[in-house]
Design brief:
The structure is a single chain. The chain has 14 helices and 18 strands. By secondary structure, it is an alpha/beta fold. The protein has 2 domains: 4-227, Rossmann fold; 245-411, Four-carbon acid sugar kinase, nucleotide binding domain (Molybdenum Cofactor Biosythetic Enzyme, Chain A, 3-Layer(aba) Sandwich), CATH 3.40.980.20. The radius of gyration is 21 Å and the shape is globular.
Length: 412
């Protein structure tokens, strides 16, 4: 019987959460969009949506569709997964979707726990840190679609939701399990329905998980999944496709730019120029695919990317507009993936949540099986496409070490 029904607001987040569920001994499957057909047997089903940056009403409608589908699969406990850097706008979509799922699940209250200490995401006094920097001082302040300029999650979430937002502070966590339960009960009695949880360590996640295990709904990043009680089931296994790997990097986060810099010294690489793409999309994409196919046919991995430096990103945004540039690049990388897959390429590493969603949709995939992790939050996956196995690693822009693009293949 399916234990957990999970709703992720982007595709990298879906595989991130599923990978951590697999790490606790659970069989997890990711469905591409709301499942309308039978789902492979699993302990947890993660519905991958592409709703992080759409209008709030569309995000809510999609989340409620996913919830209804998960109920039909027998799920009775639910998880709303968003990014560990709380990627959102002043109007949503974390708050509106949480409000809707509170009503749909009948949960009296819930938590907002984005922390993932293994990747440097921690929360103290309600403020989110990325490594040793406040969120507002990190590279996330430059995100083209969801720039995060406020580190105070109670304030950020309070502007998005119709419910009172409270804080479970670190001092209460340090006092132990009963003190945490008492503090949470007191907040609920005061009318708080969403509680931001301080979290600095894995032990803090364990304390939070134990105190909220009874809730029908939890929300947050994937780190909390690692605190679930371990189950002893058959180890995760995926089929492995042959051939070289195409790396498609649409993210322009500081982490991904560092990974691109590392890979450029080691892999054949090609940057898609925004000006060329917007003036002549067809020839630009066709030329990129032909270039990549030549290297891949010879057995060489390749890198196709959207930018080399932060200054390039900002220049393109000023010249062509942030949304227009991002949308065009997303569509181009998705088209590259589809055309390369049509010519026989079976392995892809994709960087960026929006890019990953576009690529998976362009490939027409329905389910992803979860395999070995390349880095915390970045597992390899396997899917079926036209009778063949295809392997994908969908990487959040902010995850992974500098050598991820050049070492990912070894983990298969």
């Amino acid at each position: 019987m399916t234990e957990l029904g999970c709703i992720a607001d982007d595709f990298t987040g879906a595989t991130d959460l599923a990978g951590n569920l697999v790490a606790t001994g659970r069989r997890a499957v990711v469905t591409i969009g709301v499942p309308g057909t039978p789902v492979p047997d699993a302990d947890a089903v993660v519905v991958a949506l592409k709703t992080r940056t759409v209008a709030a009403d569309r995000a809510v409608a999609a989340a409620l569709d996913a919830h209804r589908a998960l109920v039909r699969l027998g799920c009775r406990r639910f998880w709303f997964k968003y990014c560990s850097t709380f990627d959102s706008t002043p109007h949503g979509n974390i708050g509106p979707v949480t409000d809707a799922l509170l009503d749909a699940t009948g949960s009296p209250w819930t938590i907002a726990c984005p922390a993932f200490p293994d990747t440097g995401r921690t929360v103290y006094q309600g403020h989110l840190f990325v490594g040793d920097r406040l969120l507002a001082d990190s590279g996330m302040r430059h995100h083209p679609l969801t720039p995060m300029t406020d580190s105070d999650l109670v304030r950020v979430l309070g502007a998005q939701t119709g419910h009172r937002v409270g804080l479970l502070p670190y001092a209460a966590l340090q006092a132990g399990g009963q003190a945490v339960r008492d503090r949470l009960a007191g907040l609920a009695a005061d009318g708080v329905r969403i509680v931001v949880t301080d979290t600095l360590t894995h032990q803090d996640l364990t304390t939070v998980e134990r105190a909220t295990r009874h809730l029908p709904l939890v929300t947050g990043g994937s780190g909390l999944a690692l605190a679930l009680p371990h189950q002893h089931t058959e180890a995760a296994h995926i089929d492995v496709a042959p051939g070289p790997t195409a790396v498609l990097a649409g993210s322009v986060s500081d982490t991904t730019l560092a990974q691109i810099e590392h890979a450029r010294a080691r892999l054949p690489h090609r940057r898609i120029d925004p000006a060329a793409l917007l003036s002549a999309p067809g020839p630009t994409i066709a030329g990129t695919v032909a270039w990549a196919r030549g290297h891949l046919t010879a057995g060489r991995n390749v890198l196709i990317h959207s930018a080399d430096t932060r200054s390039e990103v900002m220049s393109a945004q000023r010249r062509f507009g942030t949304v227009r540039t991002a949308d065009a690049m997303e569509r181009a990388l998705a088209r590259c993936a589809r055309d390369l897959a049509d010519s026989g390429v079976r392995r892809f590493v994709v960087a960026g949540g929006e890019t990953s969603g576009a690529v998976v949709e362009a490939l027409g995939l329905r389910f992803l099986r979860i395999g070995p992790a390349i880095a915390p939050g970045v597992p390899w996956t396997a899917a079926e496409r036209r009778g063949h196995t295809i392997n994908l690693a969908l990487k959040s822009g902010n995850f992974g070490e500098a050598d991820l693009f050049t070492t990912a293949e070894a983990f298969l």
